[in-house]
Amino acid sequence: MAIPDLDALIAEVERARGGAGGAAAPDRGERIAALRAAVSLAERLRGLADDLVDGYVEHSRLQGCSWAQVGEALGITRQAAQQRYITPRGRYGPDEFAEEVCAAVTHMRQAALAHRNNFIGTEHVLYGLLTEDNSAVRHLVALGIPADSLRSRAQGSLVMGASQAVERIAWTPYTRKALTAAHELAAREESPICCRHLLLGLASLGRGTAADVLTGAA
């Protein structure tokens, strides 16, 4: 994969703000608009970079790597690595989930194993949510979005990997963020986390494979 250079990023900023290159010199308002577009793009890139490292830190820990080894790879101390990456991710009890979520999670894991993936990404979550009749499917139907075609698109987004079966499959940073958003939604409604909350949590991310699938269905 080619990493974009500075010229490519500048071109993306110009496209994002709708700039017309080569015209008269931009006024101050246009320069500020370009600056804001550059800041937005930089934030997206930083977010992607952080998510990439977060995911591989978690995978390293799941494979038995010590915090000292992780810290060495990151160029920081063991203590600094622990402080940075051991964050409150929510220890959810069984009573915090609706029963339908358990069935959906089973389908997520089965999809990951069937595709030899050692992670549960947003694509697995979306596919699992749409496999059986539940509150997520009913929410889509109420919005006039056909769940069957969306499930097919979600299934098509699953990519075959080369990982062997593992005892524990890690949730990626995006899926953990979706779960956190779902937990917040459920707390506001004073109800257990249901499949609809997870679906809305995926949609709230605004990026990731599931978000792309959902955007295409809107």
TrEMBL record:
The keyword Repeat applies. Keywords: Repeat. Gene3D superfamilies: Clp, N-terminal domain. Residues 94-218 form the Clp R domain. InterPro entries: Clp_N_dom_sf, Clp_R_N. It holds the Pfam family Clp_N. This is Clp R domain-containing protein. It comes from Actinocorallia libanotica.
